[in-house]
Give the backbone structure.
Amino acid sequence: MDPEQIQEQIRNERLALADFLDGLSEAEWKQPSLCAGWTVHEVLAHLTLSNRDTLRTVLVDVIRAKGNWDRANADAAIRRAAQFSPAELLAQLRAGAGNHRRSPGAGVLDPLADILVHGQDIARPLGRTLRPAPEQVIAPLEYVLGSMFYGAKKRLRGKRLVATDVRWSHGDGAEEVRAPVVDLLLIATGRTVDPSLRSA
């Protein structure tokens, strides 16, 4: 995928997720997501930060969190969710869908991996199905597998990943993990995929 194709897909995935989230109930916005410790509302808040973060805001958040990157991310999402309603955040997600500015240090595929993974973090605990096109998940999955940031190499050592919905495989480990490609993306980013919540 070239950068223009990636940017177009990011835009499309952001708009698709905004449409998917329209009409959630107040109780659903408060539901825990697959992203440990975050509600659905807070995951949406996090997604609106990806093209709004600056080096200064990121550094301040990391300092506040005493150097803990995950804690800094969570705190920023929680603060933003307290500041804006779901409707306001959905409007922000739509307004920024075509804004390709990235958080400091992020690669061109990070925002795509982010929107795909967090879309599933939201949808699955709600018992809803969000199906990205399998072919469009391959590039962000391969990026995650090769990135030191996500820790996938260590997590998946000794495993061979095989997609069941598209012709794709990775690794030569003795233990085979077979699943739809979006499930493999979730596994690569550290989620535990409940077979009952897997995409069809």
Summary: The chain has ten helices and three strands. Confidence is low (pLDDT under 50) at residues 196-200. The longest strand covers residues 159-163. The CA atoms of residues 44 and 89 lie 7 Å apart.
